[in-house]
Amino acid sequence: MIVEQQQAAFCNPFWHKGFADPFVLKVRGRYYAYATETEAHPAEQSWVFPILTSTDMVSWQEVGKAMAHLGSPHFFYWAPEVTEYNGQFFLYYAVHTEEFSGGIRVAVADRPEGPFIDSGYELTRDFVSWAIDPHVFKDHDGQRYLYMTIEYVDAESGLVGSGNAVARLIDPFTLQGPITRVTRPTQSWQLFEKQRASKGGLDWYTVEGPAVLHHRRYYYQMYSGGCYYRDNYAMSYAIADTPMGPGGLQDTSWHDWPGRQGDPRLVHGDQFMIGPGHNSVVLGPNNADHYIAYHATQPGMTERRPCLDRLFFHGDELWTPAALHTLQPAPAMPRLRDLFTSAELQPAWQPLGGQWEIAAEGAVVQSDENVKHAVLRQQERLSTNWLLEVNLKHLGGSSTYGVLLHNADADSSIQCAITADRQLVCTDTATGSSQTQPLPADTILERWHQLLLSLSGSVLTIQFDGRPVMETVLARPVHSFALMTERSAAAFSAISLTDHFRDEFLDAGHTPAMLGWTPARPSSDLADWQIRDNALHQDSLVADTHILYKGQAYNQFDFGATMKLQQVEENSGAALGLAMQAQDSEPIITWFQQEQSGASLKVEGIPAATRQMLPNFNLHDWHTLRLEYRADQLHICLDGPEIAVLPISVAAYRIGLATRNAAGSFISVWQTSR
């Protein structure tokens, strides 16, 4: 097995110098962080935008700076973000020529650490006189959007100040109008400065720093508001069912998150972390956990330093523990990862035909483009649910290259391959049946691209450069994987494997059995468990406990779901929750139970059973329960915060969903090995 040393913990800030507006990009197993230029007026011939790099998000090193200063009259180089497209890297940034005159430009490089060369294009010149904080979002259909911060001086539909907007990108250098409203300031906490002299004495409000992601059915735009150098700076988000509405600057497609318990801020500061804001979002090393990178100041300091915290999806809402200043677990590593930094292949790789060797750029290369079938097999066994990342590029030849998924009990495999004519083909070698999907017409195969394969039960999903391109149902389980070429030379890098699944139940064509869910009792059937209306429903009101299991034994793991009661019988002790099945033992179940005045949370099946009252807690609303098992302890988190830690020591688990004397619904169910 190929794993790197796991860092135990880290503490914010993760860098000891100023690093404002941090944007973190993951490229082939390595992280690159970019920041606003610290020099407001850079010296001639100097460089701008500091860069850090890391392989684990804990230990960081300075790389240098991204690009050369453009020279007079340019100053205030702000908020760089880098996006990869067809193996090239595009750095979008804001730069000024006057205090309130400036726009968004783009620079280009062949490597994420640069050097970046300014393209000469100012994307926003023909639309607005001032724009900052660029963010590029790629939708699932491949369309790219440029989000930015502009000024809103019409007070009729909000407060006067800066807010966020969006426009389509025709190509990396060209915007298509119109610029469309996303989020403008509307709330008192977003005050930048009362009677701002540079704005004619107006009370000026600020919403800025957009960061957009898609989850389940919705688009989420995280943003910062307030004054970046005061303690009112904070983060929140807005939600929409489209990345860009039809109404131009009067559009109202995006709606602010209403907040919790009267607080509309998702992240705000305290006495230890002051003014947290301007975040980006990045996947952790295991490709399953999301993190936000943001900056904050600390007591006695003026520098904005960079921080990282987990970001969770609670059904259709976001949650994060940020802003944390205490020691926290380091980002989880994959079960297997190979960045090919050694001079020789690790023993877990078994070459079967072809000429496989390590290349200088951190890749393994099969260089014989004439060999009929070359395989590099990984001996690490696959679990029942997993995420597999493979980065690859074509070097020569006329046929295919990609990934094989092997069945251990038969001479058969699933071949997921890219062809020389830009097709993704998934073939069952036992039956000869195949599916084909075209890749984007402008794909340059000779540059690096990412395949991300995920298996949940028997449903295999394949993404190409972050874009879903194929789903297929496997007729047989698979137990190992390999890299392959057929009459082609190809390079492969940053291979990672994580034990993980996440079921959102958005496809009514799926069944629980297809996704790997099985009833607790072999004699039971799945008739009462149905996927519909974007959720998994347990419909029976029979006075009994209903449990559906999935997964396998892991030494440490996270497990969570968002759930609610649907129908209950009067005075029935209705409950729903999460189950863990130990071998040859009764299940351990963490229950939400309905009470006369709210609910209770209790754990059954362990000696240290506990019960905690939850007054005014409505089980007919969605709530998220997360269980984290590590070091013989069960950590219980409810709607985000940890509420209990229980000692527990059992040999093995599988996880499950449970109802008792009630019908219930579940969404966003996941398990990730640690």
Automatic annotation (TrEMBL):
Domain of life (superkingdom): Bacteria
Keyword list, A-Z: Glycosidase, Hydrolase
InterPro entries: ConA-like_dom_sf, Glyco_hydro_43, Glyco_hydro_beta-prop_sf, Glycosyl_Hydrlase_43
UniProt-listed PANTHER family: BETA-XYLOSIDASE, ENDO-ARABINASE
Family: Belongs to the glycosyl hydrolase 43 family.
Name of the featured protein: Beta-xylosidase
Species of origin: Dictyobacter formicarum
Taxonomic path: Bacteria, Bacillati, Chloroflexota, Ktedonobacteria, Ktedonobacterales
